[in-house]
């Protein structure tokens, strides 16, 4: 089996590549850097430039499934230029990929799985969101995810099943938000954001990577939330981090106004509340290794000192 992966060296992509190697699944990946093209150990690189609509059509040779993770990092100041990059990187990647599939022998493709985000759900302390909810958050992130998923839905014109995984807060010390939460706690500066009541729907990086491959293996179709079964509040998350690290928490919570001064509009990410259900993918038969925040944090933080054998070579 061979899978084409976009965003293969990102936080999620790295772990998916590792799991592919463990299961003797070959990987094609796309890169915008011609000097990073490699072909070894069942992993082969191909050039593309989504901003220009350029792609090496050979990237689809022998491919039976596609995982799309492409998109610029949202955790940076939301200037007008960065907003355009965040949105266009997602839209252009999907359009370029779709054009390549249209020109290929697409009958060999049996599954297409794309990342999305739970940021589409409205900010709420009370709602418990499922994939059936159609309300959209009135924010820049809500706009991005809506247009992102509209572009993903264009792949439904093909005969293969299309699955969208709305990713929550990914727990990993190799990137994402967790290191920024852990660092102040380690230095006795940990504190919840705002009242700490906002819900954070998290998922262990290992479970998330397994979800993408599970969606391919089972030919899943439609939208699935990429979150663990038990969301926690921000206050609880910070408290559990402190507990695992055996550090005290004594500082007052961080007011939203202060973070807005520091981070601008992007500070919204720290205070938005989305309590999201994982039931749909569980009903498909997916089993989580990490259902509770305590076990997830213990696994991640206790193993942090042990070098990961994730495929770290810079092949993108």
Automatic annotation (TrEMBL):
Xref: Gene3D superfamilies: NAD(P)-binding Rossmann-like Domain
Domain (NAD-dependent epimerase/dehydratase) ranges: 3-220
Coiled coil, from the record: none
Pfam families registered for this protein in UniProt: DUF1731 (PF08338), Epimerase (PF01370)
Residues covered by the DUF1731 domain: 254-300
Alphabetical list of NCBIfam families matching this protein: yfcH (TIGR01777)
Sequence similarity: Belongs to the NAD(P)-dependent epimerase/dehydratase family. SDR39U1 subfamily.
Record's protein name: TIGR01777 family protein
